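Dear support,

We are seeing what looks like truncated structure output for some complexes. This example has two components. We would appreciate it if you could run it in full and send us the complete token output so we can diff it against ours.
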Amino acid sequence: MPSDSRFVPLEVKPDTTPIMIKHFTSSLSKFLSVVTLLVLISFTGRSQSIPEDAASISAGQALFNGNCKSCHKIHQQSVGPALANVYERAPSIDWIKAWIRNSAKVVASGDDYGVKLFEEYKKSQMTAFTNFSDEQIMNILAYVQDETKKGPEVASPAPGTQVTGGEGNGGLPSNYLNVILIGMVLILVLLVIILGFLISSLKRFLDQKNLSEEDKEVVHSPITVSTISRSRGFVFIVTFLVAALGFKAVINGLYSVGIQQGYAPKQPIAFSHKLHAGDYEIDCKYCHTGVLKGKSATIPSVNICMNCHRAVKTESPQIQKIWQAADWNAETLSFGPNQKPIEWVRIHNLPDLAYFNHAQHVNVGGVECQTCHGPIETMDVVRQYSLLTMGWCIDCHRKTDINSKGNAYYDRLVELHNASGKGNMKVEDNGGLECSKCHY
Amino acid sequence: MEESKKIYWKGLEQLTNDSEFVKHADNEFGQAPEENTGHSRRDFLRMMGFGMSAVALAACEAPIRKAIPYVNKPMDVDPSIANYYASTYTNGGDYCSIVVKVREGRPIKVDGNSLSSVTKGGTSAQVEASVLSLYDNSRLRAPKAFNSKTTWENLDKIIIDKLGSVATSGGKIAIVSNTILSPSTKATIDKFKAKYPSAQHVVYDQVSAYGILKANEESFGTAMIPSYDFSKANVIVSIASDFLTSGVSPIEATKQYAQGREVGEDKKEMSRHYQFETILSLTGANADYRTMIRPSEEGAVGVELYNLIAAKAGRASVGKGKSVTYLEDAANDLWASRGKALVVAGSNDKAVQVVVNGINDMLGSYGTTILGTPVNFRQGNDEAMANFIKDAEAGNVAAVIFYNCNPVYDHPMGANLAEGLKKVGVKISTAYKEDETGTLADFIAPDHHYLEAWNDAEPKKGYYSIAQPAISPIFKSRAAQESLLVWAGETNVDYFEILKNNWKSWFFTGGNFQAWWDKCLYDGVLEKPGAEVALSFAGNVSAAADSIAVNYKASEWEFVAYENGTVGNGSQANNPLLQELPDPITKAVWDHYVTVSAKDAGDLDFREAKTLYANLKINGKEVKLPILVQPGQAPRTIGIPLGYGRTKAGKVAETVGGANAYGFVTMVNGSLSFSGAADFKASEETYQIATTQTHHTYMGRQTVIQETVLSEFQQKDWQREYQPAVSTWSDQEDHKVKPGELSMWKGHHYNNHHWGMAIDLNTCTGCAACVVACNVENNVSLVGREEVINRREMHWLRIDRYYSSAVQPESWSWKQAEAAAENPEVVFQPMLCQHCNNAPCETVCPVAATTHSTEGLNQMAYNRCIGTRYCANNCPYKVRRFNWFKYHDNQQFATSNPAMNTDLGKMVLNPDVTVRSRGVMEKCSFCVQRIQNGKLGAKKERRPLQDGEVVTACQAACSTGAIVFGDINNPDSKISKLLKIRPTKNKDDKEDITLVDKIADNPRAYQVLEEIGVKPNIWYLAKVRNKSKVEAQVN
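Here is the complete output from our reference environment:
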């Protein structure tokens, strides 16, 4: 079948990457945002009160979780400072806006507060969010203010207990199973005892009759292992069982060819999803940047790791490996010339003949990462959770409703589908089982 | 059209109904591979056993695959998402503004840039194929000095040293190049000349236009080539100019020409095109009236046309011309559309061009169809180049730098130059590959491939274009401009900075420079057209006519050396995409040949392209080339394609071999003449030319081509003549229904999209750029010469070239065929999977590997296919291709198919399309990867899909817009409007667009083999010839 030649390793030298079409737009947008900023600053009286309505707070929460959470907590210091009361602590709301959009610029401008903050946090620079609108920043502040007012959660249970609770819930069905098994064994034992009683009472009954010698011999013939094992029924059952089990084993074996469910190879760096995605609740999209954009979710590049690990847990030998890959210079806080990419072991391998696109599923379809990757936030070592067979794909395409809400692309389709009165529109109803949706 | 009794045939074999042809045409696959492996049943069992255990073993452990992310990911690069960069293709004087598709840092496809008003988004086969040249394994890895690898430092040191001593002794330094379109490069050369005042810049072109330059100097006072606008001409007369393939600006001309040829309900006018030529060129194949003339008559025909028009214009007649068929009609038509007429000539003789200028002057073409904006495409000076070679031979040249040119191969005096180079002290080549000239040079300082380099271009005065690198240099190459500057003593040279500063000082008019520069890069072009130069004719036509009479004498055999549409001038001869691309006219691949007329080949046996060698003696050179019998070729003439016979260009070109036709070119009247007297004799030695001419032929189905003439088309309520109907018992008046109306299938519902395509036979010029684009986009295997002979070419899209003659020969006699083949009309029909809604292939597949989608696509699942080939047997269009071999990772195909067999070549593969393996069927997918990508883009933005977002590779490559693809469920799409798609009624008697059956109300729209009821999703628009009545060519 089709070869590996679609994936040709290539040494890409990013430093000479040609100027992209986007460069123009991005520089333009930078320019525009600076202009807007200036305009806004000149109107300081306005829009400086942090909104308190629920809509702004929830919009702010979404933005916070998507963009800020990986470095900031409200009540605790994380990579960056705790954000509680930041709107009162910082010089001004405008200062916060300027800082969020481009902190380097604020530091470079010699702003006292900014420089102090920069020094305090080991000169690690905050990611610039140039595209944030005024409204978006105010929403984030609304959320922060709301959380500040709520105060730290005192009685929140430790994560450990939650996990145990989860296990307890999961344990129930297996207990049931045990009870059922024991019950069945008991019933079987009872049956054997009852049958024994039946035989002995039948024997007694027959003995009272006048039986011939031959018949008596039959009645009193002892039940031994050899008589059972020689009986025709037993031989048949055993042969059948062995053949059936053997057949099943062969079929299972053949079906598992190429399936790597549970594959959990050792990675060059002992990265823990449990720690990052579970305990610290860093959004998956923060590192897997391609997941909403394209086919690959992308394994994070070293510069993403370095956003935090230029300052966090720098002494760990695992983090030192990242530093080596980046050839990190802790003095100048810059990447060195001897960069060496990290060679991760690929866990999820689809054959080349199958086309899978993350953006279609996560962005358009709204599928959660966990649906296919399992409880990734509990995995210290990532393993392949799902089968990744065609049957597994098809099964989901049959069951899943199309995420058509708010997507004008599907409007006409939904209308036509509803007119047919076939219930919810599944993926299958829009050709989700067709060959050329995944094979071309 | 059966009614008009025209017959169509693909090759003479078909016309004469050759038994060999019939045998092959009936057999879908040609011969199956002969595989007498001699295996017995026991071997089979043994191998089965081994196979089973191998599978079991293989199942134990899957190979470990690595995923290697960037260390520092560039902001704009996302794995799996393509980036597009505007850039510029330049190859000597050839130009195209392009957009390069880059995946994960590697260019994988080149498309046209529609922002350029010169090429307007058009491309050519050579531009499309050029992306594979980037990954050519025969490229130089590092600079070379005296035939061994060296470092740049070392090379520079020696060269500076040597040039310095040449300069002190006052020796002559020559920089030889083809036409240079780049103003920054020219400025660089000027800097070099400032450092070495004895340096001279000699410019030549492979296919020279020096005659035009000189004629215009004589006629208008400046040696320049004006801009032609074929779209404004109602009457075009071409005297042996193949302006669609090898003219001054073929991509631009193709675009303009098609504009004039386009017809529709609201435009029932089109240009009329007369062609007078020797060989059947692509341009001639598109002409309405075509007359065969001998090369020696080109000038005389021009003089006669001048005299005919001079009689009307009241000017004095000159010299003595030669009257040929249709010439008077041409003159009448030209005169009638004065101011909207255009005459061009292919001759490189200034006398012929002066006569043509005189005609255009009388017709008022200057300022209307010929504009005074000078173009820079062909600036070569034949005399200067000849003088340079003579100088070199005389030992008067001390040092020479060949700037990206290869005159030892592609100049007529190449052999003399090779001799002369022995006397030159310092020889430097900057070619990116070691070519015939580079081999003779002491030093090779490899330039980047154009896709790796910064550059600019000025194709026309005031029209600028930028080339930006789409990949960082793969090898240790260096921009040739940097090399020149380093040798001129500059240090820290960065050609990018130089270029940027040049643009800043030349074109920037103030404001934010970075924003302006970014915009230039984004657009790829910067257009600041200046005022047109007024052209007032002052040439001496009479003297020109006299010179023509003196210079051209008929000989028994005459030859024409021409650039074909595939290999072109030979600079990309090592590109297998071009070698395997069937020549638009001859349909030959991987071979060099001479074309002769059917009449001259009367006694030859040329069945199924099995032919004889010819012994040629031209210009004192003797060569042996196989004969290809070409309908439409003037009798007693031979045509020889240029660009073959490369001896140092890489495996591909060297495998093809052939003869170097540049050697036949001579100097006539001060410029190179690509025709002349020849000596031709057929030998006894046989040869088989690989040609796809009769492959995939329908037998006896004349209705696949439908055409009419303009006068009929202009009539009210015009209908195509051929309207198939099926007889039925049903109670209707005439008991006949349209074939589509009877069906045993229930039909499909296409709720979402219904993809369809329209192909306009009127604007398709047959240039074959689409075929190459399809190959590159879809990772189509190239199979090589032997396999093409075995009828196993893999092209998903082929262009069927039909000859037609008016009358069916009464008997299949050789004489009849000869008459029909003398000067046939030509039609081009791109043929690809028709995506039938009642697809015959789908019903016969035993494993359901080919199925129908809810969007109207006929899908092919390679991983499901078991290779029964039933589908191909059942395909009425013969568009399915079978992988007889494993074409990837197979040394057997390493030469013909480098894109799948070398590490370097594999970089060109499209990662979104599976590379097919042995034993599976494949065919056109309507570029399903592009459809899926377009849909995903719309879904991500939560909006409906817009028309024009999904463009197939062939559509994108089509310079003339003959291919239109889109959603026919969308009434506002371009294709729906073009075809005038009307929905049919459903059971409730309501119009329902989601039904599979749709009616195309455009009277020109027809489906090929409509009568068999397979309901294709491709419509063709019937060809309209601008003829007064249906008639055959006469000669």
